[in-house]
Amino acid sequence: MVSCLSVLSITLFVQHAQAAAAFDPNGSWMLGDWNGQRTALQAQGYDFSFGYTGEYAGILDSKQTSTHGSAYTGQLALGSHLDLGKILGWQDTEAQITLTYRDGQSLSEHSPALAGHQSSVQEVWGREQTWRLTDLWIKKKFLDQKLDVKVGRFGEGEDFNSFDCDFQNLALCGSQVGNWVGDQ
């Protein structure tokens, strides 16, 4: 009976603590405004991000049985963008920290039909299937915001050679230099 009441009270508390207007199609964030806290934090210079990308790949074959297989891989990204002008009074200065976790299997590595391919058919697979510090940088703007100086760990495709990745085949998206040579 006590455990049943505990579960009930936790459930009621969690529902009460849930962000108001979560999944509101007119809202700024999928998980709501956290009862106004997210807007307040953003006004103070703290902006949080959460993202998940999942990619399923398979090779369709006309044979009744196929050894080509299929694979699923995913990436979780947690980040925070900091406006250091608002937080510390450092005008025209910002910072970013992003942690990513990758998990899953690569069809490119497991399918005999893709043996010898130089690129992955799933763009979020790779760089080891583990937690990784993806971004940790600080950027300062000079000369009336005409010159940016950025120091730290970041992908070159963030500022140069940028190209959206709206397709999961790595050869067709993002900064090609980073895809073929770098570890971002």
Automatic annotation (TrEMBL):
One of its GO terms (cellular component) is membrane. Pfam families: OprB. Keywords: Signal. It comes from the Bacteria. One of its GO terms (biological process) is carbohydrate transport. Residues 1-19 form the signal peptide. InterPro entries: Carb-sel_porin_OprB, OprB_Porin, OprB_sf. Gene3D superfamilies: Carbohydrate-selective porin OprB. GO terms for molecular function: porin activity. Belongs to the OprB family. This is Carbohydrate porin.
